[in-house]
Design a protein that fits this description.
Elements: E1 14-19, H1 30-41, E2 47-52, H2 58-61, E3 69-72, H3 77-99, E4 104-107, H4 109-113, E5 117-119, E6 125-127, E7 135-151, E8 155-168, E9 176-180, E10 190-191, E11 193-195, E12 198-201, E13 203-204, H5 212-226, H6 236-254
Parallel strand pairs: 1-2, 1-3, 3-4, 4-12, 5-7
Antiparallel strand pairs: 5-6, 7-8, 7-9, 8-13, 9-10, 11-12
Subunit structure: Forms a heterodimer with MurT.
EC number: 6.3.5.13, 3.5.1.2
Organism: Herbiconiux gentiana
């Protein structure tokens, strides 16, 4: 699956594979890719974004193995149904990337489709790509509002929750404990999935905007796997961004709102 580096592409660049940005871009999810790019480039490490929307992007499909980090976003059920066969078609390649340690960030419908199964409200069961050992069930009351977690790895995480589904992650690690919102189950407890190089969640916002430590964790996993280094690990511009994000987290966590 390895392809030669195309003319104009940098061998020293960190490469982000963005899956189905046209279909699965609800709730500003594409902003996560921009945040990853900005945080890497401000530290002196260039980024190349490979966008894949389906079979017409054959040149990008041939370069899947170049990806250092993979992102897939969210969308309504109608978009999820369209995306399902497209995800199935590349599931083997994606499993190979995950098994090779490439970090994945999957949000909302993308997280569901990279799981094992998705049970729709009609009872129909969609077979997922089986990267994440999770099962999703649609149904129940839709939850819309601020979302606050406490992560044992990085502390408070804030974002936005907009879903009518439940996720069974079994005994696996999660993104964090729910402080405000619902999370994976009908009884608030834990949210998402986070083990090794796989991070999945229903936290929108986009997720990485107010939680730069998550972005840096994904970037570190991606760049260290290839031995890529930052030329300026702590630029002043990011210090200001991080302080603004810290203040936003504190404000949301202190007085979260929901519909």
């Amino acid at each position: 699956m390895t392809a030669a580096t195309p003319k104009g592409a940098s061998r020293g660049a960190l490469r982000i594979l963005h899956l189905f940005p046209r279909l699965l871009g609800l709730n500003g999810e594409s902003g996560n890719v921009e945040i990853l790019r900005l945080r890497s480039e401000r530290r002196g490490l260039p980024v190349e974004v490979l966008s894949y929307d389906g079979p017409d992007d054959a040149a990008v499909r041939a370069r899947f193995d170049d990806a250092d980090l993979v992102f897939i976003g969210s969308g309504p059920v109608s978009a999820e149904l369209i995306a399902h066969p497209l995800v199935t078609a590349v599931a083997g390649d994606l499993r190979a990337l995950a098994a090779d340690g490439r970090p994945f960030l999957a949000v909302g419908a993308g997280f569901q489709l990279l799981g094992q199964t998705v049970t729709l409200e009609s009872g129909e069961v969609l077979e997922g790509a089986s990267l994440f050992p999770v099962a999703t069930r649609h149904g129940g009351t839709r939850v819309v509002g601020d979302f606050v977690l406490d992560s044992p790895r990085i502390g408070p995480i804030v974002g936005f929750e907009n879903r009518g589904s439940f996720v069974d992650v079994g005994p696996h690690g999660t993104l964090g404990r729910v402080v405000y919102g619902r999370g994976n189950s009908e009884t608030p407890g834990e949210e998402g999935f986070w083990e090794d190089n796989l991070l999945g969640t229903h936290m929108h916002g986009p997720l990485l905007a107010n939680n730069p430590a998550l972005a840096d964790s994904l970037l570190d996993t991606a760049r260290l796997r290839r031995g890529l280094e930052y030329t300026d690990p702590a630029p002043e511009s990011l210090r200001l961004v991080d302080e603004s994000a810290r203040q936003s987290r504190a404000t949301i966590a202190a007085a979260p709102l929901s519909e």
